[in-house]
Amino acid sequence: MSAVTARGVGLVARQEIRTRLRTGRWKTLLAVWFLVVNGLGLLFRVALEYGDASSYGEPGVPMFGGVLLGVLVLTLLVSPALGGQSVNGDRERGTLATLQVTRLTPGEIALGKLAAAWGTGLVALLLTLPSLLLPVAEGAIGAGRALVVLFVTALMIGVVCAVSQAWSAVLARSVTSILMSYLTVFGLLVGTPLLFTLALPLTSEHVDGAYGGYDQEHTERIWWLLAPNPVVALADAAPRLPERRIVVGDQVITRSASSDPLGQISRGVRGLRVADRGYEPHRRDGAAVWPWGLAFDLALAGGAVMITASRLRTPLHRVPRGVRVA
């Protein structure tokens, strides 16, 4: 990648943001987003208040985890629209060439456009904070846990924006690039657990036993298929909630927060890293999964940025069919 300066990236980002703000649709869409997401979050809280959904004793615990997972999925579904036409859309309008003939490097153009798309996604994330931070204000969720999961969510938005922008640079039509961006998000969210499920029978082996034996599946061999999933990475990266202590007679029993969606997902995927032993009633916790997942997703984003920059180099020796240069 050519030399990149903060000034060049900032110039491109500001130009992209001005272009987005020229239409009033963004303000309307963000207002609708704010009302819908926070409204659904408050309705979820009301349902928890009137139901027996919080075995942890705090309705804010399941509210925080449930709303956060919903926000993650929704923002990832919105992100392809932010970067899926940032390059080929400018080519179709004939405005990309005006940037390419300046002293801006391909890396600065790619990172500047990514910063604008990512920044728009972060604004959408910030608008969800009222419903997300309500459990924090009540003391049900610690501020440290909230900061960690919001940081991971922000990273995932950036990953999807970078991949969408790469599709926009590779493909000539914005409709096709947006479609491929959505298919990429679908692959990360749904394709990874589907691939894990399909691969699971391949790890099965027959174990002889006193009653004829049984088939044992070795999830510790394929747990990594789930690591790139944004939901898995987010849930596993979230700091664990303190365990509940229940006094039964002279004994003190510790239990995890069963109503915490993030904790449940984290314990489930970490348990997959431990070999299943038939005589153990419950699987033990394995090592963390999120470092592998985040490393894969960030490497994917880095590769996407490099592809985008390479497609923005000039002069063009070969122009794709139907593509405008200026």
Please bin the fraction of helical residues: 55-70%
| Residue-averaged pLDDT | 83
**Helices and strands, in N-to-C order?**
HHHHHHHHHEEHEEHH
Shape: globular
Q: Return Rg in Å.
A: 23 Å
* Regions with little confidence, pLDDT below 50 for 5+ residues: none
Strand content: under 5%
Helix count equals 12
Which secondary-structure class do the elements indicate?
mainly alpha
Reported for the largest beta sheet, the result is: 2 strands, antiparallel
Q: How far is the N terminus from the C terminus?
A: 24 Å
Total strand segments:
4
Q: Tell me the strand order in the biggest sheet.
A: 1-2
Describe this entry's structure for a reader.
With about 325 residues, this protein is mainly alpha-helical. The protein has a domain of about 210 residues. Helices cover about 60% and strands about 5% of the residues. The chain is built from twelve helices and four strands. The longest helix is centred in the middle third of the chain and has 28 residues. The protein is globular and about 75 Å long. The two termini are about 25 Å apart.
